[in-house]
């Protein structure tokens, strides 16, 4: 992110949109909190990061000055961000039987042009 942002790392605002329970979302949440960033996770309630990870992120944010938001509202999470990050909905090795529940659950969290526009920032970058 730093190579595509003109400013200090603690001024970066980014949102992860999708499966907040996966390792990428959890890593971004903790790292952003450590670095003092404005980090947001938009995920269905059933796929939020584990409670202990959210608590840890808030604790780190107190020390670093980070801002942390975990929400089920993708538009709220992306408002004003510099970067939107997402990951796969179904990983390699995941059972196809789970797709029937995961895909409908995650469909509102697609990163599509309308969600990019919802940032209100024409310079928002997409990461995956």
- What would you say the CATH architecture is? 3-Layer(aba) Sandwich
The CATH topology turns out to be Rossmann fold
Number of domains: 1
Counting helices, strands and paired strands, the structural category is alpha/beta
Largest sheet: 5 strands, parallel
The CATH homologous superfamily: Aspartate/ornithine carbamoyltransferase
Tell me, what is the CATH class? Alpha Beta
Strand order of the largest sheet: 3-2-1-4-5
List key phrases describing it.
128 residues, alpha/beta, Rossmann fold, 5-stranded parallel beta sheet, 5 helices, 35% helix
Lay out the secondary structure.
Blueprint: E1 13-17, H1 23-35, E2 38-42, H2 51-64, E3 67-71, H3 74-78, E4 83-85, H4 99-106, H5 113-117, E5 125-127
Parallel strand pairs: 1-2, 1-4, 2-3, 4-5
